[in-house]
UniProtKB/TrEMBL annotation:
Keywords: Membrane, Transmembrane, Transmembrane helix. This is Transporter. The keyword Membrane applies. The keyword Hydrolase does not apply. It comes from Paenibacillus puldeungensis. The chain crosses the membrane at residues 6-24, 31-60, 66-84, 105-121, 127-143, 150-168, 188-208, 252-272, 278-297, 309-333, 353-378, 390-409, 421-442, 454-471.
Length: 472
């Protein structure tokens, strides 16, 4: 027998549809999520005070769930700030520049270095960490600034961020919303991230070479010489905060810091750490590096500057996740959060709103893996239209749980597919306002960069969706 659906189920579903419509129209969804929480609270408690309190309590619940992710990103950004201002980042990347001799090597070299760096530092800080050093080298050997920006985007904001295997912010969000372990989402995402990455980067490279040979390549520069101008502007911004340390100290730290992170990764593998434990290890390592480098660089002002860098990181973290908290608060209500916040008002046989809807859907609509995969890819892409990438992956996780329950399998694969689609579209490869960091450092138009990324990313998503059908 199916689960009896109540008004709470139908209201939750109606708000999901409404949220997706707003995302398609590129409108902000925060207010409608708050309205959804209020409506569900009113139905559950039948009191105005209970529903109003439910809004705040759901924000607290979501913040507690997301705090680990917010903190790790804030700490990584704080650490990257001191590495940039001391010039250690330049020293870390400098040895790699001697191997960049041709435009092809520059494209793949910048991409791979960006990907590896982004796994540890996240893409936005990674752009600043390596862009100023590698872009002049790439341009010197013939790679256009727009080509370098494409490589940074696809490898960093695409491959690294959609997998997020080290910091694990993205899989934590989607796994929570889908009600499955983080490890399951990460394992399921590996083949999808590989396929998506290979197809999109190879397609982008082939299209770039073809257009350059035909003479139809558009530079995308904001103005003549703007690539150099952007780099100069970036260095000017940092110049006032530039901290001088000895070349010998830079060299030692440039070797030691990657070794410390490599040791953390080895420890994860040996100790079988995943999820919060793995994140804690990376975060603790980053904090120690931040403190050590800051004390060495700033000496007498070191104690105060540690706090200053942490504040910078926290401002960045909450700025990124500010829009995510109310959205996640609504989608967490689809699972255990609803009972925790509003009590046991669902039917006795209920396993959560989303699970109930999935069971009901299975009894009405004949579903299969192909339908589920296409739905999750489209849903993920739509949620990415706001240019965040992260704000909508809770929705992707909830819908993956709904379809996985209805089909009877494949929840992890569907969740991973929704995550990949959302982050590739919104995380910084297709939405112009999300492309600004890479576009600014390379001095190119974010709209031209989005245009260059469009076909490779859409082709990659189509192939990845087909692969997901076979993996379910």
């Amino acid at each position: 027998m199916g689960i009896e659906l109540t008004a709470i189920h139908y209201v939750y579903l109606a708000f999901i549809v409404f949220i997706m419509v707003l995302l398609i129209k590129r409108r902000d969804t925060t207010m409608i999520c708050v309205a959804g929480i209020f409506a569900l609270g009113l139905l559950a408690t039948e009191t105005l005070s209970g529903s109003v309190s439910g809004i705040f309590n759901s924000f607290i619940y979501a913040t507690k769930e997301l705090m680990g992710t917010i903190m790790i990103i804030s700490i990584i950004v704080a650490m990257s700030r001191v590495l940039i201002r001391t010039g250690i980042n330049e020293t870390m990347v400098a040895p790699l520049t001697r191997f960049i001799r041709t435009p092809g090597v520059a494209y793949w070299g910048i991409g791979i270095i960006m990907m590896v760096t982004s796994f540890f530092f996240w893409p936005s800080p990674a752009v600043a960490l390596i862009g100023a050093v590698l872009l002049p080298v790439a341009i010197r050997v013939g790679l256009p600034a727009l080509g370098a920006a494409v490589a940074m985007n696809l490898f960093g904001h695409g491959i690294a961020l959609s997998g997020d295997y080290i910091i694990q912010g993205a899989p934590k969000l989607t796994a929570d919303a889908a009600g499955i372990p983080v490890g399951s989402v990460m394992t399921a995402s590996v083949p999808l991230v590989i396929v998506m990455g290979l197809v999109s980067t190879v397609t982008a490279f082939w299209m770039m070479r073809r257009d350059m040979q035909k003479g139809t390549w558009r530079s995308g520069l904001v103005s003549p010489g703007s690539a150099a101008g952007a780099l100069g502007e970036d260095r000017t911004l940092e110049k006032g905060d530039r901290v001088v340390i000895s070349p010998r100290a830079k060299r030692w730290l440039a070797v030691l810091i990657p070794l410390l992170f490599a040791a953390a990764v080895v420890a994860m593998l040996l100790l079988k750490l995943q999820g919060g434990d793995a994140t804690a290890l990376v975060g603790g390592t980053a904090v120690l590096i931040l403190i050590a480098v800051t004390l060495l660089a700033h000496r007498q002002r070191g104690l105060e500057k540690v706090t200053s860098y942490l504040i910078e990181g926290l401002v960045f973290g909450f700025k990124v996740f500010g829009p995510v908290i109310p959205i996640a608060a609504f989608f967490y209500l689809g699972d255990a959060a609803f009972t925790e916040l509003f009590g046991k008002v669902l039917p006795a046989a209920s396993h959560g709103i989303v699970n109930d809807l999935g069971v009901a859907l299975a009894g009405v609509v004949p579903l299969n893996g192909a339908v589920g995969a296409v739905t999750l890819a489209v849903t993920g892409a739509i949620t990415g239209l706001d240019g965040s990438g992260f704000s909508g992956i809770s929705l992707a996780g909830s819908i993956a749980q709904l379809f996985g329950t209805a089909i009877g399998s494949g929840t992890a694969t569907l969740t991973a597919l929704g995550q990949v689609a959302a982050i590739w579209v919104g995380g910084g490869t297709l939405i112009p306002w999300a492309l600004i960091p890479a576009a600014a450092i390379c001095g190119v138009s974010p709209f031209e960069l989005a245009r260059r990324n469009l076909k490779p990313v859409l082709i990659g998503l189509a192939v990845t969706t087909v692969v997901a059908m076979f993996l379910m």
